[in-house]
Amino acid sequence: MISDSQTVARPSAPPVAPARLTSSPPPAHVAIIMDGNGRWAARRGLPRVEGHRRGVEAVRRAVRAATELGVRYLTIYAFSSENWRRPAAEVSDLMGLLKLFVRRDLAELDAANVRVRIIGDRQGLSSDIAGLLTEAEERTCRNTGLTLVIAFNYGGRQEIVRAARRLAEAVAAGRLRPEEIDAEAVTGALDATGIPDPDVVIRTSGEQRLSNFLTWQTAYAEYVVLPEFWPDFDRAAFAAAIDEYHRRDRRFGGLSEKAG
Ligand code: IPE
Ligand code: IPE
Ligand code: MG
Fold first, then answer.
1. Ligand 2 centroid, distance to 168 Cα (angstroms)
2. 34 in ligand 1 pocket by Cβ < 6 Å?
3. Which of 50, 100, 229, 252 has minimal Cβ neighbours within 10 Å of its Cβ?
């Protein structure tokens, strides 16, 4: 296998890091719990919303880095089902930033061949936000580059409940027999079909918990916790997380495939 790190840059080439730090294939699906915006702002004596604003810039960097590093699917946790517990002003700031992001960045994402998918409960969202999310999905649905999955008003348990309802409705309508319900059927009834399970979940800001993220899909994901706050996340942090992932020994209940 040809390693990107063996590529010799011409003297005139810009000083970019190699696309991959190891010759191992990149994880197909990286999921990120973008955490620490508030603390980033508090450290600087700034309002929390400033941390969220800078967090949007980190999202742009993450999307670029994912593409450059060869990741096929990037899921970002943007707003949890439980984030409604925050003060109304902060919730409103977060909704406003999502709208701004879609309005400002959709054309660029589309031009970069990014396919946007949304997971989460759309029913609980205002019609303007739900409309923007649908527009983002529809405009980019034929793109073939990175798939960017935005988890918005998302909770892993709530998603499993929605899946259970969809399956129950199919059974009630006579389209499905109860004995046909297996793991594959549950996976197929989740919010976004056709997306492989995440290989790695990255959480910034040092917290070591899932916070209701991708409960079903992360059964065998590797967890990588980074110390930096989300607004400081960049390509180097992304590459470091992938390097850490490559050092892991994934067994899926079997025996180690790594020597020794
Ligand atoms: C992550 O940063 C952004 C969202 C949850 C929307 P936080 O807002 O959770 O920042 P901290 O954890 O309070 O620092
Ligand atoms: C998880 O972060 C949700 C998102 C990143 C959108 P939180 O900051 O809400 O999680 P907890 O409350 O610390 O568990
Ligand atoms: Mg947090």
1. 30
2. yes
3. 252
Q: Whose CA is nearest to atom 2 of ligand 2?
A: 35
Classify residue 109: in a domain, yes or no. Answer: yes
pLDDT in tens, 159-203: 999 999 999 999 999 999 999 999 999 999 999 999 999 999 999
Is residue 39 within 6 Å of ligand 1 at its C-beta? yes
- The CA 220 to ligand 1 mean position distance, Å, reads 25
Q: What is the 3-state secondary structure (H, E, C) of the chain?
A: CCCHHHCCCCCCCCCCCCCCCCCCCCCCEEEEECCCHHHHHHHCCCCHHHHHHHHHHHHHHHHHHHHHHCCCEEEEEEEEHHHHHCCHHHHHHHHHHHHHHHHHHHHHHHHCCCEEEEECCCCCCCHHHHHHHHHHHHHHCCCCCCEEEEEEEECHHHHHHHHHHHHHHHHHCCCCCHHHCCHHHHHHCCCCCCCCCCCEEEECCCCCCCCCCCCCCCCCCEEEECCCCHHHCCHHHHHHHHHHHHHCCCCCCCCCCCCC
| 162 domain-assigned | no
Asked whether 35 lines ligand 2 (CB < 6 A), one says yes
Q: Which ligand is nearest to the CA of 83?
A: 2
Number of domains forming the structure of the chain:
1
Q: Is the CB of 229 inside a 6 Å radius of any atom of ligand 2?
A: no
In a domain, 220, yes or no: yes
pTM exceeds 0.85: yes
How remote is the CA of residue 209 from the centroid of ligand 2, in Å?
9
Q: Which ligand is nearest to the CA of 76?
A: 2
Q: Which of the residues are catalytic?
A: 35, 83
CATH number of the domain where residue 82 is located: 3.40.1180.10
